[in-house]
Amino acid sequence: NPWTTRGNAPAGVLIWMVEGLCHLSQDEPMSMYGLLAEALWVEPDLSAVTFRLRPEARFSNGDPVLAEDVRHSFEMLSGKGASPAYQTAVAGIARVRVRDARTVRFEFKEASRDQVFVAGTLPVFSRKWGQEPGWAPGQPVKPFEQIVTELPITSGPYVIDRIDMPRRIEFRRNPDYWARDLPVRRGHFNFERVVYRNYQDNEVAFEAFKAGEFDLYKEYASRAWVRKHKGVKWEDKRILKESLDTGFGQQLQSYQLNLRRPKFQDPRVREALGYTYDFDTLNKTGVFTRASSVFNNSEFAARGTPGPGELKLLEPFRAELPPRVFGPAFVAPSTANNPQGLRQNLLKARALFEEAGCKLGTDGKLRLPSGEPLVIEYMVPRTANIVDWQRNLKKLGVELNERLVDFALYRRRLEQYDFDMVVIVEGRFTLPAAADQAALYGSKSADEPGNSNYRGVKSRALDAVIEAMNRATTLDELRDAARAMDRIVMWNFWQIPDLWAAREPISFWNKFGRPEKQPPYFQADTLISGFVEWGPWPLWTWWDQSLPLKA
Prior knowledge:
Blueprint: H1 13-16, E1 22-24, E2 32-34, E3 37-42, E4 48-53, H2 67-78, H3 84-89, E5 93-100, E6 103-108, H4 113-120, E7 158-164, E8 168-173, E9 193-197, H5 202-210, E10 216-218, H6 222-227, H7 232-235, E11 239-245, E12 249-250, E13 253-257, H8 267-276, H9 279-282, E14 289-290, H10 308-314, H11 341-355, E15 359-360, E16 366-367, E17 375-380, H12 387-395, E18 399-404, H13 407-415, E19 421-425, E20 428-429, H14 434-441, H15 443-446, H16 460-471, H17 475-491, E21 495-497, E22 499-500, E23 503-509, E24 512-513, E25 527-529, E26 532-534, H18 537-541, E27 543-544
Parallel strand pairs: 17-18
Antiparallel strand pairs: 1-2, 3-4, 4-6, 5-6, 7-8, 8-9, 10-23, 11-23, 12-20, 13-19, 13-21, 14-22, 15-16, 24-27, 25-26
């Protein structure tokens, strides 16, 4: 069960077995096409959406997919038995009403375009999943959190064929898959069998890949990509190495400062910390790009000086915004192609600390105006390479300590906002969603434990701009609001921007055919944000070129 906190659901269940009412296009920004649903009606005021289910839609057990199954799925995913992350994902849906056997209506707490996509991508599973033997209508349903080892009854193209956990899980293509001829599925799912092998150690896994135990390996570490993905098998083309470009916009990966801590209240202190982070020296492999925007790799990143549409949103808040918001777009500090770059940046940082009233004590420690030494705890669930950054900060009298905690404690402290600094990756997008930005930056979410406003941002201007994103009815309006938001976030120095990369680095055994056209929005493994899922393009659309391709 991938939607509860009980246990650890095996890889692949969400990718191969689960479907929603609609399918997100990989060719167009934020566009949905009917999957389980053959038609949908969005209320003009965006307060609700109604779906008409396809009569041919079937679960893996042969039962038709009905409106009651949709309502049941919503009730389970919004109930206390579901993981808090999924409860949050559907929190904007007020209720789901069954209009008839194949018609279901989602009503929203607040009118929002984003909620239409949440409803359309809601995973649908059978009411029979987890029912006790001999169950009859009217009897109590098994609590959702107790559905753990029962095989899911879903409508996707594959079913679980074999389980040998924690070593492997095998999926078999369902020969009776109901949607094989739908346009949104044609050309997809060409493998008869998909096997996941689980390894506890990355080094062992990579050696197993080179030995041919599995076929495709996505690399997440830039250093490993440059140094390890090479050798005889790459040279003679038995293994191919490609970095596939994607068109996703890239939100911030950054070191987020907890503004609830008094030490981070002065923006000059926050800006000074940014000058001490030498990204260009750390990025020796050149795989990544320095982030200078909330919306990297997209037209929604601020450019030049604010245009008329941006100024219309920013001017009412001029008195409470940094003056630089109304000037050129933010560019992160750099040391590239400048032997004196780091020294110059550290001098700028020292000047900013002094301007903020910080003084270097006789003990070599930089002290805040309160007299407290500036000590920063960087909380991580696994060891990070921050030695160079620690050395840079030490030159200015600032102490940076790594606090390594297990993942359960890491999650708990994140939810309670009990940290100084953490690194957060904020995900990808085709069109920026106002609901996502409200969770990350909205004043309301800053006081809600378990939400995503880790920085603790409270800004009337930012709230107003995010609301303008939500009201936008044209691409121009959305672009102006996003760029205005970008300027506010970056010029307030609520974070130290790190990196982004719009590439999917993979090595794979040279046995696959592939479509001629590569979509702009894809990942090599999978991306699931809330209920919005982007399938793994190589796995969904490639095929074994040693076998004839089935229609």
